[in-house]
Write a structure and sequence with these properties.
The structure is a single chain. With 457 residues, the protein is an alpha/beta fold. The protein has three domains: 6-143 and 265-326, 3-Layer(bba) Sandwich (FAD/NAD(P)-binding domain), CATH 3.50.50; 153-262, FAD/NAD(P)-binding domain (3-Layer(bba) Sandwich), CATH 3.50.50.60; 341-452, 2-Layer Sandwich (Enolase-like, domain 1). Helices cover 32% and strands 24% of the residues. It has 13 helices and 22 strands. Strands 1, 2, 3, 4, 5, 6 and 16 form a seven-stranded mixed β-sheet that branches. The termini are far apart.
């Protein structure tokens, strides 16, 4: 590898690229990383980290409302959007600096400019320089997609811009039914906006367990978030008092911001991959094998740019596995099964494993355990929200193959459930575990009788 300028050139300074660069550097590789915007990528700069901070902010409205039932007298709260955004930006700046320090400590040279692939072993920088590398890793992530066939789409924003609005919009229309749309609906509503979700499908959060989907729709409707399904946005017009969003049913929604959360596409445009011979799929994702190697043996790709499982922890694990495989001489294939995930709506969803529909199709017999209840906190606060928990069990082996939660701290519980499912825990293991009382999580080990038994025909 000494005939090349570096052993590894990483394009993209997000979670996957940074992890790969750091681990490769730890193995003694000469590593260079190029990032044209800011270190941290989508997750840190304009994704899961700032989103979670805004989710926290939006939930204080519930805390203020609940406090009265516990004896607190709270003056009418006043929310200030610019303060939240300024404090969020300070935290993002701190995290970006931390990423830079991490790379420096691993002896990774960071290039603050755009880089494109210029051949199997060559990268071209924006300033015209060319760098040769024994291996190239593409970790450029994904990018929000805006439909081109909607009149006035230039008036819309995506999640990228939502983090940097000058003011909190009074009325927001969000187009989409995935987790980004659902999470921002909860954020804006919790902070005081009037929110409408417009989705062309039959129901939001397609791919999640149907009971959780229905439970969240009920909770959002009770909160006052309007959800319009089987409906499309056909046009956007800017008027004197804001925007007017035209719908496929002929109605008009006046709003201050129209946000599109209709999916993200792999960020591979004009990256030189096709010219270098790298095979892409129909969505522009880099096709890779189990070890993240592309159709060109010296070029690899990890994270959302491969469109496998588009989650930050997955990109990190893929980046780590790549470095172990190529520079640690310890081949590691990322296991994409049983990955815990969460939707940070309010109430939030936590899930790992198969949905009921998937489990019923995969196993001859599935036992469904399900419970719904008001949390202990809700008894004094007067809140009408309920918590739902669901376990799906293989009726033959007794192994738990799916776990789904709707309610407070669902994501935290899903992380721990992920360990259990990965270890192959059975329903008997759950039953033999002593409950922690009083807690919501104890319901996971106290459900004794299945609510349904599904037999595959």
């Amino acid at each position: 590898m000494t005939s090349f300028d570096v052993d590894l050139f990483v394009i993209g300074g997000g979670s996957g690229g940074v992890r790969a660069a750091r681990i490769a550097g730890g193995y003694g590789a000469r590593v260079m990383l190029a990032e044209e915007f800011r270190l941290g990528g989508t997750c840190v700069i304009r994704g899961c980290v700032p989103k979670k901070l805004l989710v926290y902010a939006s939930r204080f409205a519930d805390e203020f409302a609940d406090a009265k039932g516990f004896g607190w007298t709270v003056p009418a709260p006043i929310f200030d959007w610019p303060t939240l955004i300024a404090n969020k930006d300070k935290e993002i700046d701190r995290l970006e600096r931390a990423y830079g320090t991490t790379l420096a400590n691993a002896n990774v040279e960071v290039i603050r400019q755009r880089a494109v692939v210029d051949g199997p072993h060559t990268v071209r920088l924006a300033d015209g320089r060319r760098v040769t590398a024994a291996h190239i890793l593409v970790a450029t992530g994904g990018w929000p997609q805006l439909p081109a066939d909607i009149s006035g789409i230039e008036h819309a924003i995506t999640s990228n811009e939502a983090f940097y609005l000058d003011a909190l919009p009074k009325r927001v229309v969000i187009n989409g039914g995935g987790y980004i749309a659902v999470e921002f609906a909860g954020i804006f509503h919790g902070l005081g906006s009037e929110v409408t979700i417009v989705y062309r499908g039959d129901g939001i959060l397609r791919g999640f367990d149907d009971d959780l989907r229905a439970g969240l729709v009920e909770a959002y409707s009770r909160r006052g978030i309007r959800i319009l399904t089987r409906t499309r946005i056909t046009g956007i017009v800017r008027g004197a008092s804001g925007l007017e969003v035209a719908l496929s049913d002929g109605s008009i929604l006046p709003c201050d911001k129209a946000m599109f959360a209709t999916g993200r596409i792999p960020h591979t445009g004009n990256l030189g991959l096709e010219t270098a011979g790298v095979e892409l799929d129909g969505r522009g994702a880099v096709k890779v094998d189990a070890f993240s190697r592309s159709s060109i043996p010296s070029i690899y790709a990890v994270g959302d740019v491969t469109d496998r499982v588009n989650l930050t922890p997955v990109a990190i694990r893929e980046g780590h596995a790549f470095a172990d495989t190529v520079f640690g001489k310890h081949p590691v294939a990322m296991d994409h099964r049983l990955i815990p995930s969460a939707v940070f709506s309010t109430p939030e969803l936590g899930t790992v494993g198969l949905t009921e529909t998937q489990a019923a199709a995969a196993y001859p017999v599935i036992d469904v355990y399900k419970t719904s209840f008001r949390t202990m906190k809700a008894t004094l606060s007067g809140s009408a929200e309920r918590m739902m928990m669901k376990l799906l069990v293989d009726g033959v082996s007794d192994r738990v193959v799916g776990a789904h939660i709707l309610g407070p701290d669902a994501g935290e519980m899903a992380q721990l459930l992920g360990v259990l499912l990965k270890a192959g825990a059975t329903k008997r293991d759950f039953d033999q575990t002593c409950a922690l009382h009083p807690s919501a999580a104890e319901e996971l080990v106290t459900m004794r009788k299945p609510t349904a038994r599904l037999m595959r025909s």
